[in-house]
Amino acid sequence: MSGTRDRRAAAAARHRLLPEGRVAGPMPWIIAIMMFLTVLAAAAGLGLGAAVRSMSADLAGRATVQIVEAGAEARDRLSARVAQALRGADGVARVEAVDPATLSDQLRPWLGEDATSGDLPIPALIDVTLTAGQADAKVDRLRRLLSGLSPKIRVEPHAAFLLPLAGLLSALGWLAAGIVLLMALATGAVVVLAARGAHDSHRGTIEVLHLMGATDVQIARLFQRRIALDAMLGSLLGFAVAACVILLLGARLIATGSELLGAVHLPWSSWVMLLALPVGGILLAMLAARWTVLRALGRAL
Amino acid sequence: MSAIVQFENVGLRYGLDSETLSDVSFSLHGGGFYFLTGASGAGKTSLLKLLYLAQRPSRGVIRLFGEDVVTLPRKRLPGFRRRIGVVFQDFRLVPHLSAYDNIALPLRVAGMEEAEVDAPVSEMLNWVGLGDRGQARPATLSGGEQQRVAIARAVIARPEILVADEPTGNVDADMASRLMTLFEALNRLGTTIVVATHDLPLIGQVAGAQMMRLDKGRLADPTGALRYPPLSQGNGG
């Protein structure tokens, strides 16, 4: 017990060597703002990354078969043959003909009531879900299989027409990662400036400590600790506010009911990575402060 | 007695100015008591700065405790500095620390256990007559009180060399006499004392003390720089 008390007293005495209070007044607030933006950017990057992965996995294994036959009866017959052929094909997990009524409902906003009049030839559609892996090769095999049935059959892999969207989401994800990196660099720069300012304003005390035989590391530890406290305060505040914003935005995304927007989500592993940001921010601030003060001390005798 | 400090042809120049110290050579022996005198601007403080390792010379050789400290790597300097106590002319007390914490600084810097800090600091506070002012900040102390704290801080770690720059400049005659008694007591315990002062009567109080006089950056008598002050000669020093 007395050993612990002694260590605490020694630590308290060491901490008093620099004046109490923040090293640089606005530091915690600046770090809070930067951490807030960093966490938001990271969450966006992780969410978009999850969406791209989910979309890629989903789209890679799906295709739509179009039966482009003008005559309704011939189209129905051909559809039935195609569906039968698909069910017997290798690499096909699921075959589901799109209900013509559903298709008409979806086309009505663009084609009006003509979509259901029967005068307008609308292709029959069959959704195909492939078994996992080698999606491109399986689609090619289906094309060869179905081309033997009729030249009026088209096979459209979903990945082909949603590829640009996945590319956009991926680009946005990388942009978010770049912003996180820039914010980390900016945080380091802010800490370096704050540490330099603190070093300058405590030059007299540092000189006295030096002349009494304090080592550079002993002095750097004082600044490191003080800046770590600032960084901890700022990082936790920034993270807490950002987490609230992310949760609110997540609730709004779910409320849209959109399958596409719903793909942008944060699994628990992403939250763990987000939680690592304030910890990383504190470590970064400590290292930047230590490096700055040691460099400044190294220039003195 | 062996030489604890050796200066050989030491010169010190600040920037592009002319040399503040030129061709300074002398030796101080362990356990000696030395006064450094000279007019204002003669270079006393600059010489002391070289001695307590706040400055490196522009030329020449300085040996402390048998080692050349001019070429010594920076990382080894703290070990040497802990063996030297300094009373600065402007005190250099840490303004946000109490008198107690200022005096405790050298012990804490040296890594002394906190439980062992209190007794010597309290004893030292009582000795300099500030037993009831331990928690006072320097700004609330008078000049004389600040100087006493500075002296207590310099001697608390029992340094091998004590360097004092005008230590009696802000204290009354009684306190000056008590300080000299403390310095002599430390000297008897083996500490080498170097005091820069204008106060010639003070020099006479210390039996056996030797004197160096600086004149315009040079030791006034390079051939035999260390002299007994007139009054102490009478005391058989």
TrEMBL record, chain B:
Keywords, alphabetical: ATP-binding, Cell cycle, Cell division, Cell membrane, Membrane, Nucleotide-binding, Transport
Molecular functions per Gene Ontology: ATP binding; ATP hydrolysis activity; transmembrane transporter activity
Locations listed in the record: Cell inner membrane; Cell membrane
Domain ABC transporter: 5-235
GO cellular component: plasma membrane
Domain of life: Bacteria
BP GO annotations: cell division
Pfam families: ABC_tran
Topology in the lipid bilayer: Peripheral membrane protein
Subunit-level organization: Homodimer. Forms a membrane-associated complex with FtsX.
Role summary: Part of the ABC transporter FtsEX involved in cellular division. Important for assembly or stability of the septal ring.
Protein name (Swiss-Prot/TrEMBL): Cell division ATP-binding protein FtsE
